[in-house]
Amino acid sequence: MLTSATEMLQKARAGKYAVGQFNINNLEWTKAILLTAQELNSPVILGVSEGAGKYMCGFETVAAMVAAMDKSLGITVPVALHLDHGSYEACYKCIKAGFTSIMFDGSHFPIDENVAKTTELVNAAHNLGLSIEAEVGAIGGEEDGVIGKGECADPAECKQIADLGVDFLAAGIGNIHGVYPANWEGLSFETLEAINKTVGEMPLVLHGGTGIPDDQITKAISLGVAKINVNTECQLVFAEATRGYVEAGKDKQGKGFDPRKLLAPGFEAIKAKVKEKMELFGSVNKA
Ligand code: 13P
Predict the structure, then answer these.
(1) Ligand 1 within 6 A of 102 CB?
(2) Which of 77, 183, 218, 268 is the most buried (most CB within 10 A)?
(3) CB 108 within 8 A of CB 11
(4) Is 208's C-beta closer than 6 angstroms to any atom of ligand 1?
(5) Banded model confidence at residue 143, pLDDT cuts 50, 70, 90
């Protein structure tokens, strides 16, 4: 059931668990995530980066595919279709295309410009019942061409953006997109605690979910994180499972080259990874 992410994240924050945002790349990805959410009776957020949106022929195609799949699979758990790290222009495109949630990533603008653009987009999103995420303090690493330095957010700026009426807030706390380097120092809980104190009941978002140790995930949830984004980890298990199939020569046995067979191990690997994350985040049976 397609819905905005506001209610599911308010409930998660109050219930001390987190809802996973899993980024989608194609039909297999979307189907694997939706079916797992339904099987586990968990709310879920489908993340779409601008790059992935372009790859899938644009936001309109994505919105049409997700709406039709949600209906055809008989999905009853809450599902939000969310723009990930959107530019100002992409936010408007997704509002028009039928997304149920957007993220405006104004973190690279000076704070005054971030405030002005976020304010405008909060109104545009809320007028049509969409939820909106904003970001303060860039998330490190690179995702689909969006590059961030990985700085920790300033709690006062978080409060300023939270007060604009955004529904959930991504704050940099030393997290990085992609695989963490061996010398990564871990999440800054000092920063998270300070932000959590200043923003009240605002659900906080943890980007760069891939590779964060389980105990740090659990601690982050206890300090107000209610949405955790996972992208790279699904890509890694998909690639590994597909490689295993090909290296075992299975594509050369009988009709093993059939794309429905070739992509099946990767599909199952995504399902298993999403299940593992939903169990860790505590969102099972919370639909
Ligand atoms: P990872 O690719 O590190 O899991 O990060 C995902 C993310 O934060 C999407 O915005």
Answers:
(1) no
(2) 77
(3) no
(4) yes
(5) low
